[in-house]
């Protein structure tokens, strides 16, 4: 997989506020995946984006893949305490390293009720 | 069944011990993975098995020895580990396709090396 830079590292919000995490790569990505890991838990797959400019929604979560396929974002509208956790983006290797998934450093979201 | 199971959930071992971590999936996935995750860090890939053959070894020390007995099982044999090997060890599986490869993670084994 190709390296992805993810920001911010931490984000603390009041319940009801919005939240966004960003991933950027210096090279074109074949696809990008997003995972959520609750405290003490394991990564859970949220979504995969493949197409340039793709936007996908899951209830309050909106995922975007940039036109150049070099960046992606996850936006949560009106956060809830159940949204707490670390959100990782991950890029998948091309061709011979197709199986290799490289994770960004993650954004830890905490929500104050 | 979309579950990856791992045993044990927790493991404490001494540096001279030999132990094994086990992973199982029944989703028909033919790619299986071992990851290591330290606290507050992302998962780091260790090994990939594709169709029961080792396809990626990310320069992991030989004290970690993976094994894939069949398409549903993946083991990680541990020997002479160091305290810095303490971490969450995650197993994952996926159906290897060219364009889509969602990985399903197991709950992990929390390993403490004393």
Distance between the termini of chain A: 37 Å
Radius of gyration of chain A: 14 Å
Shape of chain B: globular
Give start-end ranges of low-pLDDT stretches of chain B.
none
Entry keywords:
heterodimer; A: 113 residues; mainly beta; 6-stranded mixed β-sheet; 5-stranded antiparallel β-sheet; 0% helix; globular; B: 114 residues; 7-stranded mixed β-sheet; 4-stranded antiparallel β-sheet
What do these coordinates show?
- The complex is a heterodimer of chains A (113) and B (114).
- By secondary structure, chain A is mainly beta.
- Chain A is 0% helix and 51% strand.
- Chain A contains no helices and eleven strands.
- Chain A has strands spanning 5-7, 10-14, 19-24, 32-37, 44-49, 55-58, 61-65, 71-76, 85-92, 101-103, 107-112.
- In chain A, β7 and β8 (71-76) form a beta hairpin.
- Chain B is an all-beta fold and 114 residues long.
- Chain B has strands at residues 4-7, 10-13, 18-25, 31-37, 44-50, 53-57, 64-70, 73-79, 87-94, 104-105, 109-113.
- In chain B, strands 2, 4, 5, 6, 9, 10 and 11 form a seven-stranded mixed beta sheet that branches.
- In chain B, a hairpin with a 2-residue loop joins β5 (44-50) and β6.
- Chain B is globular, with a radius of gyration of 13 Å.
- The model of chain B has no long low-confidence stretch (mean pLDDT 92).
- The interface between A and B is medium-sized, with 24 and 27 residues.
């Amino acid at each position: 997989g190709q390296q992805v830079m993810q920001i911010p590292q931490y984000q603390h919000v009041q319940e009801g506020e919005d939240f966004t995490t960003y991933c950027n790569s210096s090279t074109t990505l074949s696809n990008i995946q997003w995972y959520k890991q609750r405290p003490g838990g394991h990564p859970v797959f949220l979504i995969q984006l493949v197409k340039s400019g793709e936007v996908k929604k899951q209830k309050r979560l909106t995922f975007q893949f940039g036109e150049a396929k070099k960046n992606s974002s996850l936006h949560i509208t009106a956060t809830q305490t159940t949204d707490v956790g670390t959100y990782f983006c991950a890029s998948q290797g091309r061709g011979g390293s197709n199986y290799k998934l490289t994770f960004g450093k993650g954004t830890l979201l905490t929500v104050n009720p | 069944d979309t579950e990856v199971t791992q045993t044990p959930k927790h493991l404490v071992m001494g540096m001279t011990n030999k132990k094994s971590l086990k992973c199982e999936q029944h989703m028909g996935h033919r790619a299986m993975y071992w990851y290591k995750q330290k606290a507050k860090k992302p998962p780091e890939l260790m090994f990939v098995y594709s169709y029961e053959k080792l396809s990626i070894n990310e320069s992991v020390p030989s004290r970690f020895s993976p094994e894939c007995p069949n398409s549903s099982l993946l083991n990680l044999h541990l020997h002479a580990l160091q305290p810095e090997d303490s971490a969450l060890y995650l197993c994952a599986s996926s159906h290897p396709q060219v364009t889509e490869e969602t990985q399903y993670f197991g709950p992990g084994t929390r390993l403490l090396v004393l």
